[in-house]
TrEMBL record:
Source species: Algibacter miyuki
Domain (ApaG): residue spans on this chain: 3-128
Transmembrane region(s): none
Recorded name of the encoding gene: apaG
Cited Gene3D superfamilies: ApaG domain (2.60.40.1470)
Annotated InterPro entries: ApaG_domain, ApaG_sf
Organism placement in taxonomy: Bacteria, Pseudomonadati, Bacteroidota, Flavobacteriia, Flavobacteriales
Protein name per Swiss-Prot or TrEMBL: Co2+/Mg2+ efflux protein ApaG
């Protein structure tokens, strides 16, 4: 598990290797990740967008930008948490992800970014 706190918002990530398969004559490696977003600040906040960079061991980089997370734009009161699970495909058995969430503070109406710490993606069969 990796964790990081930015502006009172704690991000924790746990990863899993889901398996491999062929797609369009290329080997694909499936990974899952569970993110816990915990509001440790004194203000209510809302996550309204995400920005991911997904890297694999073959130097491929995929950028994912979108609204919310898995179709939701969670509002977190002080002490609240939001947990979701998602996944990605890589063309190699190793990789990493990092990025940030765009959030708004309801007390100050200011927008801010919360860092998503870099986390590794590793196929269990390839770990020595």
């Amino acid at each position: 598990m990796v964790q990081q706190v930015t502006c009172g918002i704690k991000i924790s990530v746990v990863t899993t290797f889901e398996g491999s398969f062929y797609k369009n004559y290329k080997m694909q490696y499936a990974f899952g990740y569970t993110v816990t977003i915990e509001n440790q600040s004194k203000d209510s906040v809302q996550l309204y967008a995400r920005h991911w960079e997904i890297l694999d061991a073959l130097n491929n980089i995929e950028t994912v930008i979108g609204e919310g997370v898995i179709g939701q734009k969670p509002v977190l009161k002080p002490g609240d948490s939001h947990i979701y699970t998602s996944g990605c495909l890589l063309t190699s058995p190793f990789g990493a992800m990092h990025g940030h969430y765009n959030m708004v503070n309801f007390t100050t109406t200011k927008k801010f970014q919360v860092a998503i710490p870099t986390f590794k993606l590793s196929a269990t069969f390839a770990i020595n």
